[in-house]
Amino acid sequence: MGRSAQERLLKSPLPDYITRVDQVGVEERVARLCSRSIKKSSKIQALKLILSQIDLTTLEGQDTPGKVGQLCQKAMRLHGAWPDIPHVAAVCVYPMMVTVAKKALGESGINVASVATAFPSGMAPMHIKLDEIKMAVGEGADEIDMVISRGNFLQGEYRAVFDEIAMCKEACGNAHLKVILETGELGALDRVRHASTLAMHAGADFIKTSTGKIQPAATLPVTLVMLQAIRDYFYETGRMVGMKPAGGISKAKLAIQYLVMLRETLGDAWLCPDWFRFGASSLANDVLMQIQKQHTGIYQSEDYFSKD
Amino acid sequence: MDKKNQKRTTRNAKQKTASKKAVSTKIKRPAVDTPVEKARLQVNKTYKLYINGKFPRTESARYYNILGADGSMIANMCRASRKDFREAVLAARKAQLSWSNASAYLRGQILYRIAEMLEGRADQFAAELCATGASKSAAAKEVTAAIDCLVYYAGWTDKYQQIFSSVNPVASSHFNFSILEPMGVISVLCAPKSSLLGFISDVAPLIAGGNTLVALASESAPLSAISLAEVLHSSDVPAGVVNILTGYRAELVEQFASHMDVNAVVYNGDDTEEIKLIEEQAAANIKRVIIRRQGAKPGPYQISQAQEVKTTWHPIGN
Hints:
The complex is a heterodimer of chains A (308) and B (318).
Chain A: H1 3-11, H2 23-34, H3 40-52, E1 54-57, H4 65-76, E2 90-93, H5 98-105, E3 111-116, H6 126-138, E4 143-147, H7 150-155, H8 158-172, E5 176-180, H9 183-186, H10 189-201, E6 206-208, H11 220-237, E7 242-244, H12 252-266, E8 278-280, H13 283-296
Parallel strand pairs in A: 1-2, 1-8, 2-3, 3-4, 4-5, 5-6, 6-7
Helix pairs in contact in A: 2-11, 3-12, 3-13, 4-5, 6-8, 10-11, 11-12
Chain B: H1 2-28, E1 63-67, E2 73-78, H2 82-101, H3 104-120, H4 122-131, H5 136-156, H6 160-164, E3 166-168, E4 174-182, E5 185-189, H7 196-208, E6 212-216, H8 223-233, E7 242-245, H9 249-258, E8 264-268, H10 272-282, E9 288-292, H11 300-304, E10 307-315
Parallel strand pairs in B: 5-6, 5-8, 6-7, 8-9
Antiparallel strand pairs in B: 1-2, 3-4, 4-10
Helix pairs in contact in B: 3-5, 4-5, 5-7, 9-10
């Protein structure tokens, strides 16, 4: 985005509508979609798709280059015994670990995603947030996961939130920008919907539910509201925006329910790693165990799958 | 004060006589809505599964009938599915670490607590045994023996380690010692005619040694086992340490033997076909197979049978 285009965006009016969300309706719709039964070959297909959509994540204060390196090995070879399963979409780390991850992943085709903007609180001056993004991108990050200033949003300073996202988008350059709304701190679904719309108009490539540090993290109702926001934004502007639920999705069964919801809300075009991601640290192993269960008919144990 | 009380009692007496009168007049009048004295509607217990400290129904929504000694139906029993078993193993795995790390003293206290709770409900268990064919005296005797069995293993929790552990002489400068560690998650197929005592003789030594388990109660006589779940539930046994399923043995035996997250399978019975199947299925993750053709007579070997021996070579000077 050139300078003038950027200035245009900063001065552009905020979306002047706020769509209200019918909470009871959303919950009923979610319950209905979750009752779908996905079995046999379609289940295996779904499980493999889930693997290819995972952002394998480690965002701990105790992360070390060794641990990140190990995670990258896992990302490239999820299970040594099966060469024909897909690798994950990306590895998600702190900016300090981007170099390590980039080097470990090499030419594997797996992206490096870096959180930035004073993750997870977002409590830092703007210039520091922008520097953090530029640093991560400079080290080779392909995707940036930023957090919005929830304080500003809850105070009603939507302009500030909009401008913040727009400036971060500019700082990203060619890197993809995922905007974390931290829905656990927003409260009502109305606000989730509003924040989603703001983020997309400000230039987000992806909208993401949570940092994973706050409970509740990703939930099915919140994700459905965000998917609906993406659909309406697509009808309005023709631009596709991706979706990333993150935090608390550690079971394959739940992940399949997310896929059902995605398929029914946005259609087949979004059913790929380019437009839908799972932010998860322990989902991959459960999916692997389910695939193995489908092949052997025997329930599996974590003991026989490498730690992630 | 006394006067007041007197007044109150006289007033109450008056009210009572008044209400009696009212009833007697009502009975004379033959109205449609007259409350007729009926036999009280029976409040029967719904027998359910015991998984993760909760009492769910089977997810399969299938049931089978339990018949009494006289051939009449006593209860509907859950016919557990392999998914119920899977949930139970998850619960047992989750509970495993903290239960095996609990001190021997605490495990003993909890086993003793189960005995205390069972003592208080001895009549209920005796009645249930009678309903399925035991004589009154035999039932009472069995309940007492079951309680004593629990107390017996409660005493063993902090003693078996001394008996079975050893310091081993080795020909190098090492301090070499062996200690017992629980096997982990154990699936238990109770004897086909296992009653209360049979069930407790199976389960008590396993949990005394720090294992967690999923037990399939006897197919034809599961009442005591599933009622025992209520006792366990109120005895400080952490959720998931003991999980109890009811259902068709033939349907579940393969699952009990094949699940990769189960460390050992205990089989009560002498069906050679089933034993062969179990040994084959158990091979996939080399789980221990413990076959009991004659049931489990109380003794410390029932505990050590479900333990792994860990030997440590600790370098010492020179």
